[in-house]
Amino acid sequence: MAGEVALVTGAGSGIGAASARRLAAEGAAVAVTDLAGASAQRVRDEIVAAGGQAVALALDVADEAAVRDCVARVAAELGPIGVLHNNAAATALSGGGGDAEVLTMSAELWDATMAVNVRGPMLLARAALPAMIAAGRGSIVNTSSGAAAAAEHLRPAYGASKAALESLTRSIAARYGPVGVRCNAVAPGLVLTDTVRGPGRGLRRMRAVFAAHTPSPLGTPDEVARVVAFLASDAARYVNGVVLRVDGGMGAAQPYLADLLGRHAAVENAPTVLS
Ligand SMILES: NC(=O)c1ccc[n+]([C@@H]2O[C@H](COP(=O)([O-])OP(=O)(O)OC[C@H]3O[C@@H](n4cnc5c(N)ncnc54)[C@H](O)[C@@H]3O)[C@@H](O)[C@H]2O)c1
User: Fold this and answer.
1) Which EC number(s) are documented for this chain (predicted)?
2) Residue 131 CA, ligand 1 centroid: distance in Å
3) What number does the ligand 1 atom closest to the CA of 221 have?
4) What is the mean pLDDT of residues 222-226?
5) Above 90 in pLDDT, residue 221?
6) Rounded to whole angstroms, how far apart are CA atoms 140 and 125?
7) Least confident of 17-31, 100-114, 200-214, 226-240
8) What number does the ligand 1 atom closest to the CA of 91 have?
């Protein structure tokens, strides 16, 4: 990644922060952007303290003019963007934030979800593509979710937005792959961010569910970031238009079969089986 310029959205926390740290550790100059400017600044300071190169910018990905200005500013400060990680999502709207079911869905909630999760990545890609096309190389990585491929009962807007993002991923890959710009997505399963780790979220039970269905423990933000860095790099130069699940195998399973066969003892005994 040496000599590369990367822009990461939603990089003030969770997976985006891990991606910014990893891309910087691998040598890229990183634009750490987030709606929460102070969070972006904190991550930028950590990167610089660790010897990396980074700038922090407040950015609402749904704001067309702000996206244009941000990309121009990053190009002026760090150089043309070669890697774009579209990671920001309106996560606060999904888990208990109103995105619960179609029957009670407000049109405003739907529009706000789509604005951040789909319009945002399109605006960022539109702004970053000209320099990538001019250079004849570039890599866009979008953060999707396992929720794009299978319903979760309680996040229809979120799931639909991630499915749309995966479609956008393929459109960009098909159209600009021939001129050297790749576009791929990662689809994380449940990842242990600070929010997911937080009190009252039932971490022990989550671990037990994963133990019952996959050979893997819950993922960490850096485990997703490593895959983002791979897709962003030339090591993945023949990988274009894919959605790569990073979920420890959870999406490969059909959990209902385990349920039918009663193979969920680890879940039932979670308080005693797992620490
Ligand atoms: N954590 C998981 O288990 C998980 C699983 C699957 C997919 N994802 C996806 O991973 C990505 C990162 O999620 P996370 O878990 O790290 O969440 P997070 O809530 O920790 O981080 C999201 C970040 O996006 C920022 N953000 C929100 N709205 C924004 C906007 N309009 N413009 C710019 N930034 C904005 C927030 O300030 C926050 O820093 C998201 O796309 C999410 O859908 C997460």
Assistant:
1) 1.1.1.100
2) 26
3) 16
4) 97
5) yes
6) 8
7) 200-214
8) 19
Q: Residue with the nearest Cα to atom 7 of ligand 1?
A: 145
Domains of the chain as residue ranges with CATH: 5-197+220-250 (3.40.50.720)
Burial zone of 51 (CB within 10 Å; 0-12 exposed, 13-18 middle, 19+ buried): exposed
Measured from CB, residues less than 6 Å from any atom of ligand 1 are 9-10, 12-16, 34-36, 39, 59-62, 87-91, 116, 143, 145, 188, 190-191, 193, 195-196
pLDDT, averaged across the chain = 91
